[in-house]
UniProtKB/TrEMBL annotation:
<protein>
    <recommendedName>
        <fullName>FAM20 C-terminal domain-containing protein</fullName>
    </recommendedName>
</protein>
<feature type="binding site">
    <location>
        <position position="258"/>
    </location>
    <ligand>
        <name>ATP</name>
    </ligand>
</feature>
<keyword id="KW-1015">Disulfide bond</keyword>
<dbReference type="InterPro" id="IPR009581">
    <property type="entry name" value="FAM20_C"/>
</dbReference>
<feature type="binding site">
    <location>
        <position position="467"/>
    </location>
    <ligand>
        <name>Mn(2+)</name>
    </ligand>
</feature>
<feature type="active site">
    <location>
        <position position="447"/>
    </location>
</feature>
<feature type="domain" description="FAM20 C-terminal">
    <location>
        <begin position="341"/>
        <end position="554"/>
    </location>
</feature>
<keyword id="KW-0547">Nucleotide-binding</keyword>
<feature type="region of interest" description="Disordered">
    <location>
        <begin position="102"/>
        <end position="143"/>
    </location>
</feature>
<feature type="binding site">
    <location>
        <position position="295"/>
    </location>
    <ligand>
        <name>ATP</name>
    </ligand>
</feature>
<keyword id="KW-0479">Metal-binding</keyword>
<feature type="binding site">
    <location>
        <position position="274"/>
    </location>
    <ligand>
        <name>ATP</name>
    </ligand>
</feature>
<dbReference type="Pfam" id="PF06702">
    <property type="entry name" value="Fam20C"/>
</dbReference>
<dbReference type="GO" id="GO:0046872">
    <property type="term" value="F:metal ion binding"/>
</dbReference>
<keyword id="KW-0464">Manganese</keyword>
<dbReference type="InterPro" id="IPR024869">
    <property type="entry name" value="FAM20"/>
</dbReference>
<dbReference type="GO" id="GO:0005794">
    <property type="term" value="C:Golgi apparatus"/>
</dbReference>
Length: 564
């Protein structure tokens, strides 16, 4: 009896122990497998729906969603095909060619030059391409009629025109080289024209008080060659006001397709504010065309510094600024703009504004957090009727349509048939356009629909590199099509090449990063990947110039038109 009770107790104890052991084992296996499959942090990210991070995600927050999107679009070829040694050789070749330059032609080998070939006769067989637009032109980038009269002519032209012969092309190149050399001789002794001198008399008569302002001191430093003097005290003063000056008025600018606010600033200055919209690591949405890309204030800032480092000085002074969206903008806004303000569910102050792209409640400009907003502020240059601008439709403009192509995209002779043949380009404009193509390629800007210059400064006047808000859209790819003018025309300004070489040697991205660090209060305007892209693209530009020089000789490509 005693024995059987003992056996019962023992078996109960045994089954209980087995049960506990089994339970402990199962618990351990369960915990272990969960831990391996799902480390806590990763689980957090995975379970966060992407909608938590909209593409204009919170300020100061890394945009995880965009970073992940970038991963799937890796650049396969991260380097150019040119070596440092070859770039050094190119520099020697270009320098020597300039020293040896003789006669009226830039070309070394004159044997191909048929002096009986007549431009007039050649051009006479071709339909007119039309002349430059004037500032009365009102197209916007996205309007339906953007192609204008010029492009209609171009498409008719393609249908009937036979391909330009190699002989004509070579003769046309000689003709262009001679034309630019003639232009250089005519303009060699041109004196520098200051916008201050141009505007002085009418201001003295109508608004003499404006002559004593910081604004006018700065206007005097604008010339036909550059829109600011990089080492001047006038530039420093302009920056001071753009960055810290009290705002007297905030009004929407009617021109353009995306939100821009005109700011009244002290001392006669006006600023053009483009507000923060997307984080620094934001990349253009893969399914967005360049014409629906959102404008970026940090791209405007970076483009200003790149242009300055390149020695162009053609982007009007621009700087980043912190705003209090309520006291700086809402309280100074015109009634029209003030009406569009609201407080978001997150308790941030926002405004919509009125414009054709991204001016609705779901794309509002919002302080983050609360009233805190950053933006870029550019000095507003005088506009008509005070001075005259020329708005030139870019011959290499894109179609601004999801379904249409334009001629230059498929016709490799486009430069010969539409640009070189057009006498509007038988002067500095041709090489100014090449400078712009180089600049746009480096900053990745596909949105150069027009070229702007100040007509009031005479005929020997450079382009003003306005509107760079859609640059720095992607760092993981380089859009070679932006170099099409250089690839198809194969002309380039000697002085620009020399500067590019010097910059290459000093380290392009380092110069840009230093310039940003020295001149900007806003942090990390260009993320590391964008800086790397600058160096990579500069090499690609050299590779394109190398190809041109192999094809047409150094002296048939590099032109010294006297512009520095
Ligand atoms: N700093 C400036 N000084 C004087 N005029 C300017 C300045 N910036 C821009 N503008 C004028 O305003 C127009 C519109 O500006 P901007 O091109 O930056 O806007 P946008 O919205 O990108 O326009 P679009 O959609 O036509 O490209 C310019 O074409 C130019 O005529
Ligand atoms: Mn634009």
């Amino acid at each position: 009896m005693r024995y059987s009770r003992l056996r019962l107790r023992f078996s109960i104890l045994f089954s209980l122990t087995t049960l506990i052991l089994f339970f402990l084992l199962a618990l351990h296996t369960l915990l272990w497998s969960t831990a391996e499959l799902e480390p806590p942090e990763q689980a957090l990210i995975r379970h966060k729906p992407p909608s938590d991070m909209p593409f204009w995600s919170a300020f100061h927050q890394p945009n995880v969603y965009d970073l992940q999107a970038t991963d799937s679009n890796k650049l396969t070829n991260r380097s150019s095909s040119i070596t440092r040694q070859r770039i050094n050789e190119l520099f020697e070749l270009v320098r020597n060619a300039r020293n040896n330059q003789v006669g009226s032609s830039n070309l070394k080998k004159d044997s191909d030059h048929n002096r009986k070939w007549s431009f007039g006769k050649f051009a006479g067989q071709k339909p007119q391409t039309g002349s430059n637009d004037t500032n009365t032109h009102t197209d916007t980038a996205d309007s339906v009629g953007v192609q204008g009269a010029k492009s209609n002519i171009q498409s008719k032209f393609t249908a009937t025109e036979k391909v330009t012969s190699e002989h004509d092309k070579i003769q046309l190149r000689y003709f262009i080289l001679d034309a630019l050399l003639k232009w250089k001789k005519q303009h060699m002794n041109d004196t520098t024209i200051s916008l201050g001198d141009v505007m002085h008399d009418s201001l003295a008569q109508d608004e003499p008080e404006r002559l004593n302002t910081t604004w006018f001191q700065y206007i005097k430093t604008i010339t036909n060659f550059r829109v600011y003097d990089p080492n001047s005290s006038e530039l420093k003063n302009v920056f001071k006001h753009l960055q810290h000056g009290a705002i007297s008025e905030a009004n929407e600018m009617s021109q353009g397709t995306q939100i821009k606010i005109l700011l009244g600033l002290p001392n006669g200055l006006q600023g053009l504010l483009k507000p923060y919209r997307v984080p620094r690591n934001y990349q253009t949405q893969p399914d967005h065309f360049y014409f629906s890309d959102i404008e970026r204030h940090h791209a405007e800032i970076a483009a200003f510094h790149v242009d300055k480092v390149l020695g162009f000085n053609r982007v009007p002074p621009l700087i980043g600024r912190f705003f209090n969206i309520t006291s700086d903008i809402r309280e100074k806004a015109t009634a029209e703009l003030a009406k569009t303000f609201f407080i978001s569910p997150a308790n941030n102050t926002c405004f919509r504004g009125h414009c054709s792209y991204y001016c609705d409640t779901s794309h509002a400009v919002c302080g983050k957090p609360g009233d805190f907003l950053e933006g870029s502020v550019q000095v507003l240059l005088p506009r008509p009727p005070e001075i005259n601008w020329q708005k030139i439709t870019h011959p290499y403009r894109r179609s601004y349509s999801a379904i249409k192509q334009v001629e230059w995209e498929s016709n490799e002779n486009f430069c010969y048939e539409h640009v070189m043949i057009d006498e509007d380009y038988h002067n500095r404009l041709l090489l100014d356009m090449m400078d712009l193509s180089a600049f746009d390629f480096l900053i990745g800007n596909l949105d150069r629909h027009h070229m702007m210059r100040i007509n009031s400064l005479g005929t020997n006047t450079g382009l003003v590199h306005l509107d760079n808000g859609r640059s720095f859209g992607r760092y993981d790819s380089d859009d070679l099509s932006i170099l099409t003018p250089i690839r198809q025309c194969c002309f380039f300004r000697y002085a620009t090449f020399m500067r590019l070489y010097k910059i290459y040697h000093q380290g392009f991205s380092k110069l840009v990063a230093d310039s940003l660090n020295a001149g900007e209060d806003l942090q990390t305007i260009l993320v590391e990947e964008h800086l790397e892209a600058l160096d990579r693209r500069l090499e690609i530009l050299f590779a394109h110039l190398d190809t041109c020089m192999k094809k047409y000789e150094v002296t048939g490509v590099m032109i010294n038109d006297g512009i520095y």
